[in-house]
Design brief:
Elements: E1 3-4, E2 8-9, E3 21-24, E4 36-37, E5 47-48, E6 50-53, E7 57-63, E8 69-76, E9 78-80, E10 88-92, E11 97-106, E12 112-122, E13 129-132, E14 136-137, E15 142-146, E16 153-157, E17 163-164, E18 170-171, E19 177-187, E20 190-201, H1 211-214, E21 216-219, E22 226-231, E23 237-244, E24 249-256, E25 260-264, E26 271-279, E27 284-291
Length: about 290
């Protein structure tokens, strides 16, 4: 059976003293199985120690906090903002445990008491994540992988007005641009944030209504090594450009009075691309094709 570990009142002149106890401003929940002790060697059962986050400021108050009393603090495993007063702020270190001892007395000396408590120190939330692929085209899934430590719940802000409480969400952006994505990691009153930029590139459009499309055929599609571009209209000069889905131009080829042209795609990785045909009469067409593995 688990019981809560109470503060230990050390020997003192307590006949006229209130029943003092120590309180933390936040309630820290350790993971299951952590911060359990057996102070009586099994005779009283296992007990939960009070927990606090490492390298984090905690505000402790001795109650009742009545006027006319002095409070003197001794801390190990952390640093107190002050040695006297009530309440007091303690920044804990990186060790496994710390100890707080508070000596209490009134001005007349009729009440002299002390509270001593061992604190279990646990890792607080440390937010981090990865986004892949990045950059990526709009309307394509971005995989957000949560690599945070010490978190129990999460909130994602994707920077486009959408959010998620999933641990490892997927998200698509329907507009291009640069978006600041923030992950907030929570654990029992503590939080930490991590922000990264995700770059969303536009997809090149396909001109479906341009009359040039009906005059051009690209085959085979899909293809492995070469594409044939067949232009069934008169022109003096044409430019063929190949783009990836991020809008990056990968190659360019010039044509003169040629009805058919072979375009070498053997060096491209398998995937989807656009071939852009620009004629000297001002007509422009974008045609999507698929490159296969060899």
């Amino acid at each position: 059976m688990l019981t809560v570990l109470s503060s230990l009142n050390l020997n003192a002149q307590t006949a006229c003293c209130p029943d003092f106890f120590l309180s933390d401003a936040v309630d820290i929940c350790p993971t299951e199985g952590a911060c359990i002790t057996d102070p009586a060697g099994g005779s009283q059962g296992f007990m939960h120690m009070r927990a606090a986050c490492k390298e984090t400021a905690h505000v402790y108050t001795v109650f009742p906090n009545e006027p006319g009393f002095t409070f003197t603090w001794t801390v190990s495993g952390g640093t107190a903002f002050s040695s006297t007063g009530n309440p007091n702020t303690i920044v804990w270190g990186t060790g496994a445990t710390g100890t707080i001892t508070v000596y209490i007395s009134n001005l007349s000396g009729t009440c002299v008491d002390s509270i001593s408590e061992e604190i279990c120190l646990i890792d607080g939330p440390d937010a981090s994540f990865t986004a892949s692929p990045n950059p990526v085209c709009q309307n394509t899934n971005v995989n957000f992988t949560n690599t945070s430590a010490g978190g129990s719940s999460y909130l994602w802000d994707f920077g486009d007005g959408n959010n998620s409480a999933q641990e490892d969400p997927l998200h698509q952006y329907d507009t291009s641009g640069t978006f600041a994505v923030t992950l907030t990691t929570y654990k029992c009153g503590e939080s930490d944030e991590s922000t990264q930029q995700v770059i969303i590139d536009p997809i090149m459009g396909i001109a479906t209504s341009n009359t040039l499309n009906a005059a051009i055929t690209v085959y085979p599609n899909p293809a492995r090594t070469f594409l044939t571009v067949d232009i069934k209209m008169q022109y003096k000069h044409a430019t063929l450009e190949i783009y990836n889905l991020l809008g990056n131009k990968l190659s360019q080829q010039e044509l003169q009075h040629t009805a058919k042209a072979n375009v070498d795609i053997s060096t491209l990785q398998a995937g989807s691309y656009f071939i852009k045909v620009l004629l000297d009469n001002g007509n422009v067409s974008n045609i999507r094709f698929t490159k296969l593995d060899r």
